[in-house]
Specification:
It is a single chain. It contains ten helices and 14 strands. It is of the alpha/beta class. The strands form three sheets. Strands 7-8-9-10-11-12-13-14 form an eight-stranded parallel barrel, surrounded by six helices. A four-stranded antiparallel β-sheet has the order 2-3-1-4, covered by helices on one side. Strands 5-6 form a two-stranded antiparallel ribbon. The structure holds phosphoenolpyruvate and manganese (II) ion. The site of manganese (II) ion has 5 residues, from loops.
């Protein structure tokens, strides 16, 4: 439940209510807006049954929160969150473009890609060092060596880096190199990994599971935030449907739905959503128009030679054109880009 304080509630009114909540062994989460203060309660609220909190000084009214996700819920925190990754702010007012190869293949490949995507307008470099491949015989990633190349490439280009982790072991290694970790679609409900990512405290981008509902996805994000890490960004990357023309179906409606249910920033990945290079640009524009906080796009120096996801990867010049064509859409949506 959430407790809405009266507009003129004093500091001591607020502290008193927090004290009543904590006295019962529950957690209170304060969200102070310019007009009203909201206190969210996490835990078994039946413990507050006889507390008469609704008549405590300064309390306006109480609203039950029926959803099982609380800390990620917009009712708990009405103001949209900003997640900082290095010097980059993901959230309202900005349009963050993350770009880079599906997989780190060599030092030269990521150094070259980092320079090209930075020049075009990207603000975060992506690249997978641990690859969750459908076949065990496909390229699995360079692991720690790949993280080292990514760190060097990011530092050289002046871009923070994001890399996927596929296990708790990979997470332990990755936190030494990266600015943000990615938990991929296949691990969205790997609860041990989510908890460890929460404890690690590093910004996390959580991709939507292949067949996950928005409710399941927000509960997965709640696992991370419940460990004390509120630096979580959601990424819609397409879902499984009956339609085979695209690799997945981009659920563009997830963007406004998430915006109404959560305060966490939302990124769209048109590359994995479509699987087709030609569809990346229109879907990226749709993401900006729908209110996304940014996109993640796969870019490769030579897509036909890519060890993974070549068909959906953009060349440097495709990516440069994408950024130029996208800028007015981001501007119309009230966002700064590049
Ligand atoms: C990726 O971003 O490289 C990736 C594997 O994405 P997803 O988890 O969305 O399939
Ligand atoms: Mn990929």
């Amino acid at each position: 439940m959430i407790i809405i304080m009266k507009p003129g509630a004093s500091r001591s009114n607020i502290d008193h209510v927090i004290g009543m909540i904590e006295e019962k062994g529950l957690n209170a989460h304060l969200s102070e807006g310019s007009q009203v203060t909201i206190i969210g309660v996490v835990g078994d609220k039946t413990k507050l049954a006889h507390s008469n909190i609704e008549i405590a000084p300064g309390v306006d009214h109480i609203v039950p929160v029926t959803e099982s996700y609380k800390l990620t819920n917009k009712k708990f925190h009405p103001k949209d969150s900003v997640v900082q990754v290095g010097h980059v702010l993901i959230g309202p007012g900005t349009f963050t473009v993350m770009a880079g190869p599906c997989a780190v293949e060599s030092r030269e490949q990521v150094l070259e890609t980092a320079q090209a995507v930075k020049k075009a307008g990207a603000s975060i470099l992506r690249g997978g060092a641990y690859k969750p491949r459908t076949s065990p015989y496909s390229f699995q990633g360079l692991e720690e060596e790949g993280l080292k190349y990514m760190k060097e490439a990011g530092e050289t280009a002046g871009l923070p880096i994001i890399c996927e982790v596929t296990s708790c072991h990979a997470l332990e290694t990755a936190v030494r190199y990266v600015d943000m970790i990615q938990i991929g679609a296949r691990n969205m409900q790997n609860f041990e990994l989510l908890k460890e990512a929460g404890k690690a405290g590093i910004p996390v981008m959580l991709k939507r599971g292949l067949s996950a509902t928005i409710d399941e996805w927000l509960n997965a994000a709640e696992y991370i935030v419940a460990e004390g890490n509120s630096n979580v960004v959601l990424c819609e990357r397409g879902i499984r449907t009956f339609e085979p023309s695209t690799r997945n179906t981009l659920d563009i409606s997830a963007v406004p739905v998430l915006k109404s249910k959560t305060h966490l920033p939302v990124i769209v990945d048109p590359s994995h959503a479509s699987g087709v290079r030609a569809y990346v640009e229109p879907l990226a524009k749709a993401a900006a128009a729908a209110g996304a906080d940014g996109i993640m796009v796969e870019v490769h120096p030579c897509p036909e030679k890519a060890l993974s996801d070549g068909p959906q990867s953009l060349t440097f010049s495709d990516f440069d054109k994408l950024c130029r064509d996208l800028a007015p859409y981001a501007g119309l949506a009230g966002r700064r880009f590049p």
